[in-house]
């Protein structure tokens, strides 16, 4: 029934991004149709070996793609649009985005060859447009990327405000401050529910302004005579500009090191940002400058092993070297989960003699998400009846709900991915849980994170694999010794005895089968498989992925 909401009903259904930070995918349902807001990715961590990119499985809405009227992207961050290039072929709906987000999206769609297929309508912040039964207004906000928007979604069953990622930066440097007038007007017209960013609900006060970071960087860079490297999140175009201006103020030239920085530089200039700056130098050109005349802006603030900064720290970057007397400034924060990689990187730099400066030492970073005072101000502007915290883990959602109630919001709901929430009519209620899941990019395809393929690969990583080939005649007599390959388990050269023990176990197991069973392939295979597993469990304490190749001649 809920696959097609009836008149007078309004639903919110997140398939990703609630109970976790990343891979946002939200759905709103009204008059039999669904509207998607954001379609993002997350990045793998230690709990997912060999997984780089993860996203919400859109299967539930993909099965109802004829009811999906469109996808509106709130801003250009990976956790909000990074999955379009992988998932759009399953959805095939029109897409709306701000000019800056559209530039980033188009560059990504090029990567998967979809740029000629995906219909992207470019809508600046402050636009109004109709998507099926949803009247969408985009309100310009500030964040750690230009052109972040909050969506006011008006329907026959009520108005929802989907905040996206935001903060109130009074001086964001690129683009105007948040349009509080539009927020206040939406509040006056009446807001049923706010679906809002919970990321920094534990931070007191305000996030702080990009302009304050700029002033601080100008002073900080003046203290150094050697080479300076600054690492920041590539999508923070205002920060890029600040570092370049701080370099100029200190009679230095700024160079970009890392592909994603060049991509953002291109997207920014396409949309009229950074136009007062001279072109950035390449790392190759900057190598000819004296040490005190250069600032390298580098990717890799999170310790990503293939990014520029990790390669520089490992001494294998083709054009950039750092050493004694040089400094690296992390104009960023530690994203929880990345601590090990970041500290490894910082240790590598310190061993080279490089001074490391982070936000703990100097004022070099502000967050892109609202602190508590900003969240309170938003609730006072919008005055919703209901608050639905999203973009956070369970503990963030709970605290956000508490804050909303303290702001006078009558109803708050803490949900997780897959909960279908009826916002109207009547009291807010979870009416159904729909199946959810995660997909990850595995070479050219997408596979479920809980699929057998990945389960087996994880087991192979931790337990190795054993493949045995047995050749039998029709009666089931072994023709020659079974051949064993035990990858990641046995060193055939140095562990000949152990190797022989497994082979013998297979021989014995087959010999012990009744003669009728020996003629049955599946029984032989199962007996051999169990023998291999038992033998390797006893000798090595491992439960490898085991496969038996059986040949009858
Ligand atoms: Zn986000
Ligand atoms: Zn964001």
What topology does this entry show?
Blueprint lengths: L9 E7 L8 E6 L2 E7 L1 E3 L9 E4 L2 H4 L5 E5 L5 H4 L2 H8 L3 E3 L1 H13 L8 E3 L5 E4 L2 E8 L6 E8 L2 E5 L17 H10 L3 E5 L12 H12 L6 E4 L5 H13 L3 E5 L1 H12 L10 E2 H4 L7 E5 L9 H6 L13 E4 L8 H13 L3 E3 L14 H11 L3 E5 L3 H13 L4 E2 L6 E6 L4 E5 L4 E5 L2 E4 L3 H12 L1 E8 L10 E5 L8 H16 L3 H4 L2 H20 L4 E8 L1
Parallel strand pairs: 3-6, 6-7, 7-8, 12-13, 13-20, 14-17, 14-18, 15-16, 15-17, 18-19, 20-21, 26-28
Antiparallel strand pairs: 1-2, 1-22, 2-3, 4-5, 5-24, 9-10, 10-11, 11-12, 22-23, 24-25, 26-27
The chain binds zinc ion (2 copies).
The site of one zinc ion has 4 residues, from loops.
Question: Could you characterize what this model shows?
Answer:
By secondary structure, this protein is of the alpha/beta class. Strands 8-7-6-3-2-1-22-23 form an 8-stranded mixed sheet. 32% of the residues lie in helices and 25% in strands. The chain is built from 17 helices and 28 strands. The model has no long low-confidence stretch (mean pLDDT 94). Strand 18 (327-330), helix 11 and strand 19 (355-357) form a beta-alpha-beta unit. The protein starts with 9 loop residues before the first strand and ends with a strand. It folds into 3 domains: 10-205 and 367-448, Ribonuclease Z/Hydroxyacylglutathione hydrolase-like (Metallo-beta-lactamase, Chain A); 210-357, Rossmann fold (3-Layer(aba) Sandwich), CATH 3.40.50.10710; 464-552, Roll (Ubiquitin-like (UB roll)). The radius of gyration is 28 Å and the shape is globular. Bound molecules: zinc ion (ZN) (2 copies). One zinc ion binds next to loops.
